[in-house]
Description:
The chain contains 14 helices and 11 strands. With 414 residues, it is α/β, with parallel strands linked by helices. Among the domains are: 35-169, 3-Layer(aba) Sandwich (Rossmann fold), CATH 3.40.50; 189-340, Rossmann fold. The strands form 2 sheets. It has a 6-stranded mixed β-sheet with strand order 8-7-6-9-10-11, with helices on both faces. Strands 1-2-4-3-5 form a 5-stranded mixed β-sheet. Strand 7 and strand 8 form a beta hairpin. The longest helix has 26 residues, at 363-388. Nicotinamide-adenine-dinucleotide binds next to helix 7 and strand 7.
Amino acid sequence: MAENLNLFTSTQEVIHEALNKLGYDEAMYELLKEPIRMLTVRIPVKMDDGTTKVFTGYRAQHNDAVGPTKGGVRFHPMVTEEEMKALSMWMTLKAGIVDLPYGGGKGGVVCDPREMSMGELERLSRGYVRATKSVVGPTKDIPAPDVFTNAQIMAWMMDEYSQMDDFNSPGFITGKPIVLGGSQGRDRATAEGVTIVIGEAAKKRNIDIKGARVVIQGFGNAGSFLAKFMSDLGAKVIGISDAHGALHDPNGLDIDYLLDRRDSFGTVTTLFENTISNTELLELDCDILVPAAIENQITADNAHKIKANIVVEAANGPTTAEATKILTERGILLVPDVLASAGGVTVSYFEWVQNNQGYYWTEEEVREKLYAKMIAAFDNIYTTAQNRNIDMRLAAYMVGVRRTAEASRFRGWV
Ligand code: NAD
């Protein structure tokens, strides 16, 4: 039978298994197998050439039993309703794993920001907020940046919401510029969280980060910050890649140089001649492999060729269920996406807390709090996996879904 590469149904399967292991019945799975709310909107935007283009947008809210839903808004041509559903479910899991008082949400607009002017992007961002106004808000559902959206887009969205409400609402959205209530450390939070869990996983495998050979797939926001952090810690980053190919140097790449040369979409390999393919990159002999680009990269086809001791999923969904099984059987420690990339939502939560209290923390305070959350989450999931003799993904889903299930039961929903 062909391997399941569908992120939505494979997420449902692991949630089902996690709820079974936690002792919940089918009614709980019926509630949690997809979002409780899914809004589809059509957003008319005046384009620079005078025409009007109508864009399709979504907002998915998985479950709000614990608290308001939270999750990014992506602007991408491949956005689909099903993808929004899966991503909102992952946000519930991430919030549960790092113990934030949120449920999961996710939004998106089918568009290609690489082909839009700043004016068109601003009108689309404001249009998205007007179209979704009835379901979002600082105590209902709090958006954030995601693929191809950034602090400027968050600023326009926050301004639109505040204008409609007639008062300043910084807590409506996170990932804002610092002057508009953004948090210190938000832009690097995902990579910082990945760095923390890599450190914890390396301890379990007696690997010294200093001198460890690291391979990172993807050199965008997550991958490039991570490459910098790892090389600053003394690791040897021997491979990196982007959508066009990969670079490999067994003696370690010059990350500062590559960061300097990369463009705003995370492309750098096109400047070099001696490149290897992304497939070859994943199979390099290394200590730590970090897929930080796109989904379905480690599958049943290549899982037995992975030579890393530890695989840390910075990207969402880079390893299929079958590949997870193969890696675990081969003794490779797999740190799943819902844990590894939870640093972003954690600092987004810190931003919202600071907005609500109107008092702001230093970068050091944010970092300390992020460390505490990520290390507690890693320990909890690692111990669950060991005690129950299950893989880290199933353990992460069990930890992640438990609180939402309990809150739903206390509220009398199931
Ligand atoms: P990005 O768009 O900034 O960068 C993506 C990188 O992947 C680029 O270098 C791009 O060239 C590369 N890439 C694209 N297609 C590829 C392919 N087919 N093969 C190899 N490389 C390819 O994105 P990002 O924000 O760095 O996100 C990367 C992953 O991490 C995504 O799965 C995202 O959902 C996840 N993630 C990111 C954050 C965050 O805060 N940035 C948070 C949580 C999860």
